[in-house]
Amino acid sequence: MNLNLSDEQLALKETLRRFVAKDYSFKTRHDIIHSEEGISAAHWAQFAELGLLALPFAEAHGGLGGNAVDTMLVMEAIGSGLMVEPYLATVVLAGGLVQDAGTEAQKNALLPNIADGSLRMAFAHYEPGGRYEMSQVSLRAERLADGYALDGVKTFVLHGAQAAKLVVSAQDGAGLSMFIVDSEADGVSVRGYVTQDNLRAAEITFNAVKVGAAALLGAAGDAEPAILRALDAANAALCAEAVGAMDALNQATLEYLKTRKQFGVAIGSFQALQHRMVDMFTAATQARSMAILASIRVASGTTEERRWACAAAKVLVSESARLVGQQAVQLHGGMGVTDELSVSHYFKRLTCICASFGDADYHLDYVSSRLLAA
Amino acid sequence: MNLDPNETEQAFRTEVRAFVEQSLPDDIRQTVLNGRELGKDDYLRWQRILHQRGWGAPGWPKAFGGTGWTALQKHIFDEETTTAGAPGQVAFGLHMVAPVIMAFGTPEQQQRFLPRILTGEDWWCQGYSEPGSGSDLASLKMRATLSPDGKNYVLNGQKTWNTLGQHADWIFCLVRTNTEGRQQAGISFVLVDMKSPGITVRPIIMLDGGHEINDVFFDNVIVPVSDRIGEENRGWSYAKFLLGHERTGLALIGQSKRALKRLKMIAKFEQANGKPLVEDQRFRDRMARAEIDLTALDITMMLLLSVDESKPLGPEVSMLKIRGTEILQVLTELTMQACGHAALASLPQALKPGWEGVPIGHIYTPPVAGWYFNMRKLSIFGGSNEIQKNIISQMILGL
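Output (structure tokens, whole complex):
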């Protein structure tokens, strides 16, 4: 057992901390989220320069050969800085799927471009009416003589409108499959929107979209295990992001308790508030433990270990995030419900993390079901 | 980062597991696993067995006859022995007074007391709380006045919430040696022979009917000054030293793992609407939540154990205590709930070791209600969970 970060990881953590402190102020973020595209090309280029976009990919494909514990550190920094760039969509989800299921040709064609920042991708998987259920895919891939034709609708495609290429899940005759599709292809219409936490997502309609046979990602009809792995990795990453956000929020709240005066004293001198703050601190600590567990299991666990850890982590992290988010707002009083303070932005991001890629109830159902099997 | 045990850890775990498998007397194992009452002899037998193996004091340095184990080894030992059904080692001697004697006692005191703790010859109990001094321990009033010749203290007063003092040979007490100035600065730490004239032990029966705590009255009890630890009026700092000494505190992870395993078994056995209770989604979700919470605590513990061992843990231990006690309390509550009506029957005789009567419900049912009731103490003793929150608030958060 070794739960210490390596020297390289400690250095990465420090680099990220400095990057957030120096280059991603709340004001900078404000400008980015109100821009047309909603993400910053300049910061994305910095992500690439720092090697963050290459981190989890094999060296043969322009990567740095890292794993989910390394991306955990990046996601934590993204959480603490409330960064809105499409790291989860591009690197963890779409890039992860290409690395996991792609042919050598596909990996060579895509991963080096993701790593150098020139290609952003997204994963189009969830569908209207399917809620969080991973197997509710009705988008059709009809087999043609020289490829496939895709018909259907995908929703909550995180950073779908900011991506040049999409990984799309579909039912073909053989079962659940995945395809790599150009966002600009004929028949693809992208309706981008802003999410409650000022990230970007899209609803994407595929109308007789023709792709070649080489667009198939992984074996036909055999996409489910890879999608499960990708969604687990996404949830582990979101847990890490939530931990970063909770730490920042707790820090801000603690600072406020020490400086805000009422009745002639700092409000942090009131025991009711002290104990609330301790509960928030404890919740964040437990959440961190589960985020670490999930990342370790994504990096090197068995399928069973990985699925359990990611689901369990999402349950506990969601509950912790809800407590920390709501109570940070509460303890900030009126200031907590304004747009001008970062508190409300952290709260909204945490809320959206809890409600994406399966909420606590959805993941509890999995953990709970394992009790029947044991 | 990885959670895979390395070869040394794995070998150690295997060694402990094999030892417990082979050496834990079956009657003790049955008493523990069936939730029945452990007697003094059960604790002592197990302590002697451990001592013979050289494992009598997992927390002690080798110089004093301990194992010299790392914090992780201690954790593995605790987990393996607990889940296998071994009784806990009595903490008052091994984990509470011994570290104080090692750190602040004279060589003579160390030679006199420590070996007898190791062998189980001396059973220690604690004299901290008083009727008027619970969470506000420093307000304690039990007086120790010097005899005219300066050779002895004379103790007068009352200690309470004294655990298993009815078995004890010695008691370590915080006593007031000065009534002037800051109340923390007038406390001394003394060791008292329980056979001393003037000591009366009166049982306090707990809500589950058990006798595990007492009032202890001191009426002109003579204690040689040489049985004081360290300096006069410095006892409070010795008592506080214990806080940082025990890295794992009251996380109770081994106990909770054992409780969860047992709950899973019971939930498969109990029937609800003609099906095993575990198939009831509402109940199963509660179990799943407890399992998740316990996992988070377990990883938190591992993370704390990964921190450089030379750095004493302080307030972090308070968090382990809060979460650990809350989780075990939930598990006891779920276990009682799982047993339904049958848990409501009170069969004190069924808690005796070796009882072979017919239970109401199943063989595991009789102790579950008492266990739930009894374990409410967890969030109260050892510094109530509210006091733990005060500690975290002050020492970690700086509020």
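Chain A touches chain B through 40 residues (CB under 8 Å).
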